Amino acid sequence: MRPARRTGAACLLVLGLAGPALAQDEGRKLFNGGVTPSCAICHTLKDAGAAGEIGPSLDELKPDAARVAKALRTGIGQMPAFPQLTDAQVQALARYIEQATR
Ligand code: HEC
Q1: Taking CB atoms and a 6 Å cutoff, what residues make up the pocket around ligand 1?
Q2: Of 3, 58, 72, 73, which has fewest CB within 10 angstroms of its CB?
Q3: Nearest Cα to 55, choosing from 75, 70, 36?
Q4: pLDDT for the residue numbered 28
Q5: Short-list 55, 54, 64, 74, CA closest to 96
Q6: Can you give the pLDDT at residue 92?
Q7: C-alpha distances in angstroms, 36 versus 32, 41, 70?
Q8: Closest residue CA from atom 17 of ligand 1
Q9: Average pLDDT, whole number, for the chain?
Q10: Is the pLDDT of residue 7 over 80?
């Protein structure tokens, strides 16, 4: 038996449909302590008033939503994965960061 595959397709769909303004607010809140450990302690993101220096500056990296979602789901380097986030929360964060850095 093969394990069920998790694809990003459903996430991308949600991304296109989510209410932009609401998702922006939710994403910013999640970024700033809505989840533990807080993104803000490790990342700089001007829009969120965050100045963490452990991870890359997201203002400079300008990751698109898919890249953010992948980092949150699998972790990357020193950054832990965030299994406690729902798919909707991952998408809110991913979309927020993409838009805040464009
Ligand atoms: C404990 C510190 C820490 C926390 C907390 C943290 N990150 Fe990271 N993050 C890092 C580090 C370090 C990297 C660089 C990893 C590497 O490239 O080796 C990184 C990389 C990233 C990347 C780039 C991924 C890529 O493909 O290059 C994104 C996007 C990101 N983090 C978003 C977030 C978000 C959103 C949160 C909050 C839910 C978060 N991070 C929480 C440390 C952290």
Answers
A1: 35, 37, 39, 41-43, 54-56, 61, 63, 67-68, 71-72, 76-79, 82, 93, 97
A2: 3
A3: 75
A4: 95
A5: 64
A6: 94
A7: 10, 10, 18
A8: 77
A9: 88
A10: no
